Amino acid sequence: MMADTTFARTFKALSALLAYPSEDLQGAGGEIAAVVHSEGLVDPETRTALQRLLMELEAADLFELQEAYVELFDRTRRLSLHLFEHIHGESRDRGQAMVDLVAHYETGGLVLTANELPDYLPLFLEFLSTRPLDEARALLSETAHILELLEERLSKRGSSYAAVFAALRGIGGEAAAAADAPVDLEDEAGDLAALDAAWEETAVSFGPGDAMDGCSVDRLKTRLRAAKRAVTQSAA
């Protein structure tokens, strides 16, 4: 039997849903829904849940979406979108895992220029969208235990983002038996020093694209607003 050499735009669509909210994302709901529906990689029940997320993104105020995103994914380590954070934490093994992942990207023809760490889930999904579907599924299955954990934590918070992780788990299947168990991370929502450290970490670049684009500037502004609010609350 020949290997499946088709490429799935669904990975790119789901990557967009996990990206920092923007006006472009708010206006792309119809396109994202059409891609997910046409390729049929996501089951109908999960597609319905994804549609709820798309409707929320389209209808909500952009600044509120951005602040909610930062609160979820940037200020809470247990919901980090950096895959190796959940496997290696702050251990030295994470650095080597980063190097190995960059090498894998480059072997697949992706040279990183974005101002983001290579284990950032939206970036990983972008890479999967360029690979044959059978290969992409196999790679995604290696993260299934992390995806399941994030889906569960988001569901407990009542977040519609849980649907994205349910969709990814459905595509990738069960985790490999030898996969590393996620480490137990503590939430650091109120730790401003940790917030600063996290921002410094995501500024690491593995390519020549060091300039901060408009989205990065907006995201930094949102982080600063969140930090200011945390200071105000702690002083009250």
Largest sheet report: none
Helical content class: 55-70%
Q: What best-fitting shape do the alpha-carbon axes yield?
A: globular
- Strand fraction equals under 5%
How many H/I helices?
A: 13
Q: Work out the count of structural domains.
A: 1
Radius of gyration, CA atoms, in whole angstroms: 17 Å
* SSE pattern: HHHHHHHHHHHHH
Low-confidence stretches: 187-192, 198-214, 223-236
Mean pLDDT: 77
In short, what is this structure?
With 236 residues, the protein is mainly alpha-helical. The protein contains 13 helices and no strands.
Structure description:
This protein is an all-alpha fold. It has one domain. Helix content is 62%, strand content 0%. It has helices spanning 10-17, 23-26, 29-39, 44-59, 62-74, 83-88, 93-107, 121-128, 133-141, 144-156, 162-172, 192-202, 214-235. The radius of gyration is 17 Å and the shape is globular.
Please describe the structure with a list of short key phrases separated by commas or semicolons.
single chain, 236 residues, mainly alpha, 13 helices, globular, disordered C terminus
Blueprint (SSEs and pairs):
Blueprint: H1 10-17, H2 23-26, H3 29-39, H4 44-59, H5 62-74, H6 83-88, H7 93-107, H8 121-128, H9 133-141, H10 144-156, H11 162-172, H12 192-202, H13 214-235
